[in-house]
From TrEMBL:
Protein name per Swiss-Prot or TrEMBL: Mannosyltransferase
Catalyzed chemical reaction(s): an alpha-D-Man-(1->2)-alpha-D-Man-(1->2)-alpha-D-Man-(1->3)-[alpha-D-Man-(1->2)-alpha-D-Man-(1->3)-alpha-D-Man-(1->6)]-beta-D-Man-(1->4)-beta-D-GlcNAc-(1->4)-alpha-D-GlcNAc-diphospho-di-trans,poly-cis-dolichol + a di-trans,poly-cis-dolichyl beta-D-mannosyl phosphate = an alpha-D-Man-(1->2)-alpha-D-Man-(1->2)-alpha-D-Man-(1->3)-[alpha-D-Man-(1->2)-alpha-D-Man-(1->3)-[alpha-D-Man-(1->6)]-alpha-D-Man-(1->6)]-beta-D-Man-(1->4)-beta-D-GlcNAc-(1->4)-alpha-D-GlcNAc-diphospho-di-trans,poly-cis-dolichol + a di-trans,poly-cis-dolichyl phosphate + H(+)
InterPro entries assigned to the protein according to its UniProt record, in alphabetical order: GPI_mannosylTrfase
One function term, GO molecular function aspect: dol-P-Man:Man(7)GlcNAc(2)-PP-Dol alpha-1,6-mannosyltransferase activity
Keyword Metal-binding: no
Topological type in the membrane: Multi-pass membrane protein
GO CC, alphabetical: endoplasmic reticulum membrane
Species of provenance: Trametes coccinea (strain BRFM310) (Pycnoporus coccineus)
Keywords annotated in UniProt: Endoplasmic reticulum, Glycosyltransferase, Membrane, Signal, Transferase, Transmembrane, Transmembrane helix
Length: 523
């Protein structure tokens, strides 16, 4: 049973990678850094080929996660290539993301085992069920956001805090120190906001006498110093700027200099009123029930709730800044769900409790289905470039310009299938002299005037009829716009229950529209 639950978590995370293999612009730094480490190596003379010197982004990010992911992926690719040869670089992108998803799944599986030891087998099973029926955690933990690299040590830290005997009143001193060390490392290297979790956790450990102030300071200083030295050495090398501590630079840029406000400012309550409900779905009320019933859950969630209260003071808010909270709240929710499902079934209250849990999980499944369907259709750039590579696979000397929308919605370096660089020993099996051009701010007239450009992947609204005489549309790629509720469902029920149920299955209609067009220059 235990192994089966772990396997389901792995398979679910890998399924999302397979069904949505393309990426968005916010994932691009780490994805392209991993690409460059894989393809070019890490020698100093290779650095000038790296993508981050062309598209550096608003703030520098660490290379530590990308380097480790590239090295691990290289081993996995070497093993997988013995079974089946790789003929397209997009397969390498999928493998890279499978590795990241696998590491995050491993953390969840370790955590599930700790939950089983402390709260019992039924609670660990319900933890898995709730996690599987939520969308964001499993879908995103195979995506190369810095937050998903930070999620690995964050989940390991939570595992350290949970892993103890059922009646133990405190975690071991060693586990507390490891948890503080892991979160300190993650906040120094990957995501600085995790410092707002280290603080409350350290205060709780001292107040409840899990450890001493001296030990907390010692662990924090030692781990912090090692982490700072590591990130400064590694990232100064890859960015060719000395000294560089990316997360400190990010804190100055986004918080002290207030630049994050340029991406939008939300009210203080947004994490509680919008982001947590979206991330947790029915686990939100269930975690409240678990905290009400079990003092162990209240103790566990206290630092995480404090973290959300602290980070809410920052104006710019995104759900991914609090993604680390989801497993902790799911533990509380699983405890609440266990209470509901174990009420005696010979009473009305017991039967209603069980049905309530079933209904809540059903709501999760429905919401996750909608989130997944919309997300699968939300990468038109990746779909367009993949289709383009297939359409013109036999042609030489192709020079394609990729529009901004295409670049932001999936047209990553791994989809430059017919142009170098390639992994050593990689058998392309198709032309390798193409040019993929992502030069920004070029009008359609300028692209038309540039005769070396043979093809375009252009945005539909950007098309200019005055120059379309030079281009032939080859294919159109659509994308997700939203959902529409069909209001004729009620009328269908008036004609009969059968007609009504049939109409109910199509009550929600996905809205799609044309996003990108593939153009070929006319002879």
């Amino acid at each position: 049973m235990s192994t089966s639950l772990d396997a389901i978590v792995f398979l679910a995370s890998w399924m999302y990678v397979s069904l949505a293999p393309y990426t968005k612009v916010e994932e691009s730094f780490n994805l392209h850094a991993t690409h460059d480490v894989l393809m070019y190596g890490v020698q100093r003379e290779s650095l000038n080929h790296y993508d981050h010197f062309v598209f550096p982004g608003a703030v520098p990010r660490t290379f530590i996660g990308s380097v480790l992911l590239a090295w691990i992926s290289r081993i996995a690719l070497a093993i997988a290539s013995k079974l089946t040869p790789f003929h397209d670089k997009v397969d390498i992108q999928v493998m890279v993301r499978l590795m990241l998803a696998g590491f995050n799944a491993s953390g969840l599986c370790l955590l599930r085992r700790a939950i089983s030891r402390r709260f019992g087998g039924p609670t660990s099973v319900l933890f898995v069920i709730l996690t599987l029926t939520q969308f964001h955690l499993l879908f995103w933990m195979g995506r190369t956001l810095p937050n998903m690299f930070a999620l690995i040590p964050a989940n390991l830290a939570l595992y350290m805090l949970v892993d103890r005997a059922p009646n133990s009143t405190r975690p071991s001193k060693e586990n507390v120190h490891r948890a503080i060390g892991l979160l300190t490392f993650a906040s120094v290297v990957f995501r600085a906001e995790l410092a707002l979790l280290v603080g409350p956790l350290a205060v709780q450990a001292i107040v409840r006498q899990y450890t001493s102030i001296a030990n907390v300071v010692k662990v924090g200083l030692l781990t912090g110093t090692v982490s700072v030295v590591a990130t400064v050495l590694v990232d100064s090398y890859f960015w060719q700027r000395w000294p560089l501590w990316p997360e400190l630079y990010g804190v100055y840029f986004n918080v002290l200099d207030g630049k994050s406000a340029e991406w939008g400012v939300s009210p203080y309550h947004t994490y509680f009123s919008a982001h947590l409900p979206k991330l947790l779905l029915s686990a939100a009320p269930l975690s409240a029930l678990g905290a009400l019933l079990d003092s162990r859950i209240r103790s566990l969630l206290a630092p995480y709730l404090t973290f959300i209260l602290l980070i809410s003071a920052l104006g710019h808010k995104e759900w991914r800044f609090i993604i680390y909270m989801v497993p902790a709240f799911n533990i509380g929710a699983a405890r609440g769900a266990t209470w509901l499902v174990t009420r005696p079934k010979n009473s009305l209250f017991g039967r209603l409790s069980f049905l309530t849990l079933v209904a809540l999980i059903a709501v999760n499944c429905f919401a996750t289905f909608l989130f997944a369907r919309s997300s699968f259709a939300n990468y038109p750039g990746g779909a367009a470039l993949y289709a383009f590579n297939r359409m013109f696979a036999s042609e030489d000397n192709v020079h394609v310009h990729i529009s901004n929308l295409a670049a932001q919605t999936g047209a990553s370096l791994f989809l430059h299938s017919n142009a170098p660089p390639f992994l050593p020993g990689f058998d392309a099996g198709h032309p390798t002299n193409w040019v993929y051009n992502k030069t920004e701010n070029l009008s359609l007239r300028a692209l038309t005037a540039s005769k070396q450009i043979t093809h375009l992947i252009a945005e539909i609204p950007a098309l200019d009829s005055a120059v379309m005489d030079s281009w032939s549309p080859v294919a159109v790629v659509d994308g997700f716009d939203g959902w529409r509720l069909d209001r004729h469902v009620g009328q269908a029920f008036k004609t009969g229950v059968g007609d009504g149920l049939k109409a109910l299955g199509n009550a929600l209609v996905m809205l799609r529209s044309e996003k990108l067009v593939i153009l070929r220059r006319k002879s």
